[in-house]
Design brief:
By secondary structure, this protein is mostly beta strands. It folds into two domains: 278 residues, no CATH class; 74 residues. Helix content is 4%, strand content 45%. The chain contains two helices and 25 strands. It has a 17-stranded antiparallel sheet that branches. A six-stranded antiparallel sheet has the order 5-10-7-8-9-6, with no helix packed on it. Strand 21 and strand 22 form a beta hairpin. The longest helix has 8 residues. The chain is globular.
């Protein structure tokens, strides 16, 4: 008797693309994206049949539909290449946009050539003629401070800028800033607070030679999970997604090969500034806090219109070393409920440098965790609804 081929878990691939409209599947096969830790979950939705049967026995529940969810991780690396990619070309960005982020491409450095800053301090400067005097035009953008360094040490994040070009940064430098500055070309994903719904996605998922075509896919959970890599242990920063979907079709098809994208930058040899102070810690988690629901509609085959975003509340939780009151008084910051920035930056090569920027966040209180050899704290940052409230950016220079 001939043996049937088995399906291997690692023989898995995924492709995705935005749809033009809800309910219309678009073939995403050209957009293969490396992922890991895929889980697909297909569950029956049942309703109890309460009809009497003339005995104590009861009929089985009736199946009224099925819920399809998939979850996976995407390594958090930049788009690569020598220049900023075109719109929609960075595939993980398609998922970020579906999670209610806006893709922002800065294709030309500002100014075109580095120019001298003036009125420098340890936390900011005044820009020159190459900047435009519009309030918060550059909020959440990365800026290079060439008087500090031409390497990663000279890359910072703009917390705010005034109409008179006064720039406040998300970090504190050891001495007054001098020399030239330039806002480099960059690809960014910025929290969107508009009322526009993101387009649903079409996905193809190959698992061990079987293909699932999924339509009207909606991100239901999005998390940026970043752990610090040390001399004793390491971890790969990831984007962690879950999506609700509708099965459009299934077929047997060999899983396509996905080219390797190389190593992923580890969270070390970079920057982590909390309330403008360089603090140590084991990493951070940015949670989009998405809420979804499906509107009932008897005109649809499924009886509803598919999952849509109905709510979002973003939080960022850094796992920090706990410091003495004189160095970092987290309790006082939480008591005051004032706004403070968070800024993380890592990577070595432009195109693979990653940054996460929260210009304003309020701290919740956090106790001391003594479960390890060092005392730690995990003070969650509450992020209010503000323009450019969260930015994930990749610089090119």
């Amino acid at each position: 008797m001939a043996l049937m081929p088995t399906r291997k878990t690692r023989n898995t691939a995924l492709a995705l693309i935005p749809q033009v409209s809800r309910g219309t599947f678009v073939d995403p096969a050209a957009n293969l994206m490396p992922i890991s830790n895929l889980t697909d979950n297909i569950e029956s939705v049942t309703v109890q049949n309460s009809e009497y049967t003339g005995s104590i026995d009861q009929n089985g529940d009736e199946v009224v539909g099925k819920q399809v969810t998939i979850s996976f991780d995407v390594n958090l690396r930049g788009p690569g290449g020598a220049d900023v990619p075109s719109a929609g070309a960075y595939l993980p960005g398609i998922l970020l946009v579906n999670a209610k982020m806006t893709e922002v491409i800065t294709a030309t450095a500002i100014p075109a050539a580095p120019e001298a800053l003036s009125a420098g301090s340890t936390t900011g400067f005044t820009g020159g003629a190459g900047m435009t005097g519009t309030l918060d035009l550059y909020k959440g953008m990365l800026v290079r401070l060439l008087g500090v360094s031409t390497s990663l040490a000279g890359v910072s994040a703009i917390r705010t800028n005034s109409a008179s070009k006064v720039v406040e940064l998300c970090e504190t430098f050891g001495s007054t800033l001098t020399g030239n500055y330039q806002i480099p070309k960059q690809l960014a994903y910025v929290n969107s607070i508009s009322s526009t719904d993101p387009l649903p996605l079409s996905l193809k998922v190959w698992i061990g030679g079987k293909r699932y075509d999924l339509v009207d896919c909606q991100v239901t959970s999005a998390i940026v999970a970043v752990q610090t890599s040390t001399s004793k242990q390491g971890s790969i920063p990831v984007l962690r997604f879950s999506l609700a979907a509708i099965i459009y079709n299934t077929a047997d098809e060999d899983t396509p090969a996905i080219p390797s994208l190389g190593t992923t930058p580890k969270f070390k040899n970079g920057k982590q500034f909390v309330a403008k102070k360089a603090l140590g810690g084991s990493g951070f988690e940015l949670n989009f806090g998405l809420q979804t629901d499906a509107a009932p509609n008897p005109n649809q085959t499924t009886g509803d219109e598919g999952d849509e975003l109905v709510g979002k509340q973003i939080t960022l939780t850094p796992n920090l070393l706990s410091y003495r009151k004189a160095d970092f008084d987290q309790m006082a910051l939480a008591d005051a409920q004032s706004q403070h920035p968070y800024f993380a930056l890592w990577g070595e090569t432009p195109g693979q440098i990653v940054s996460v920027i929260v210009p304003d966040g309020r701290f919740k209180h956090a106790g001391d965790d003594m479960g390890g050899t060092h005392v730690t704290q995990a003070p969650q940052m509450l992020i209010d609804v503000k323009t450019k409230g969260v930015v994930i950016a990749f610089p090119y220079y």
